[in-house]
Amino acid sequence: MAVVAVWKCDRDGAMFDNKKDAEEHDKMLELAANITALIERNVEGVSEEASEEIGLMLAKRREVLAKACKGKPEELLAAEEVSEQQEAETAEENVTPLAVNQ
């Protein structure tokens, strides 16, 4: 029997096969939580669910958001188009063909 080391994120239970990826994911979730708290404190009428979704979306796109804040606002929309294409390609790759006559 083989032993496989995995790292589990306490915040959401996500599992990773290396410490670096686990720590990066944890930092992203911490940023998302802080953005969520900022939204909830400063924007009236936003539901908790909506503010969490916004916080997570901004945290996942933090590199592109930083570029936009440094004078390249077009990066936000360009990154969104690339992200949509990658998600579509990934969805196609994750489809397992059905086995016939097994």
General description of the model:
With 102 residues, this protein is mainly alpha-helical. The protein has a domain at 62-91. The chain has four helices and two strands. The chain has helices spanning 19-42, 48-60, 62-69, 74-93; strands at residues 7-8, 15-16. A two-stranded antiparallel ribbon has the order 1-2. Residues 81-92 have a biased composition (Acidic residues). Residues 81-102 are annotated as: Disordered. This is YebG family protein. InterPro entries: Uncharacterised_YebG (IPR009813), YebG-like_sf (IPR038627).
Please name the defining characteristics of this protein.
4 helices, disordered C terminus, two-stranded antiparallel ribbon, YebG family protein, YebG-like_sf, Uncharacterised_YebG, single chain, mainly alpha, about 100 residues
Question: Topology of this protein?
Answer:
Blueprint: E1 7-8, E2 15-16, H1 19-42, H2 48-60, H3 62-69, H4 74-93
Antiparallel strand pairs: 1-2
Helix pairs in contact: 1-2, 3-4
Helix content: 55-70%
Q: Quick check: average pLDDT?
A: 82
Point out poorly predicted stretches.
98-102
Largest sheet: 2 strands, antiparallel
Count of strand segments: 2
End-to-end separation in angstroms reads 29 Å
Approximate strand percentage? under 5%
Q: Helical stretch count?
A: 4
In N-to-C order, the SSE pattern is EEHHHH
- Structural class, judged by helices and strands? mainly alpha
The best one-word shape is globular
In the sheet with the most strands, the strands line up as: 1-2
Calculate Rg over CA atoms. 18 Å
